[in-house]
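We treat protein structure as text, and this decision shapes the records that our systems exchange. Because each token names a local backbone shape, the row as a whole describes the fold. For reference, a complete record is included directly beneath this paragraph.
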Amino acid sequence: MVNPLVLGRDKQGPLAHARRRGSAHAQEVIPSSASAPRTRPFGPLPPPEVVAGIVNDGSATLVAETAVRLARELEGRVRFVQVLPEGLDDHERADAEAATFGTALRALHGRPRVQATFEAPAGDPGELLVRRSLMAMALVVGPDAPGAGPTHEVAAYCRAHSGCRVVVVPAT
């Protein structure tokens, strides 16, 4: 059986022993003509991402703190996504974004090396958060309000449709 880690015609030179994909020095063989294979180093893998799904439900602070703590444990970053209702004017949108930014900064305070990005899309919270967490390691959301009805069941929707781990913070 051929060792899948041995590349090239002989077992010498820089292509002789490529490490497995995902290691710090992984290489990809690029087919070429009759000449010796060329390699291209893979770029570094992006850090794991945790999405903090912030909806105007009173749980923003706990969602942000939980997402930052989880990102720090995973040695990753946080994407704060404040889902806004459709039809806000510029002032209302700016106020909502400022509130989210302030909540996120308080959660990040004292936790160095946690990278963060901020977004404030408008639309359906469940659908937007599932879409924004497609490549994430985890999605953190607030709890569904009891008796709120199916249009406000963001956590249930995320659990049913997300491809990543969904963390629902307890009600405050």
About this structure: The first helix runs from residue 60 to 73.
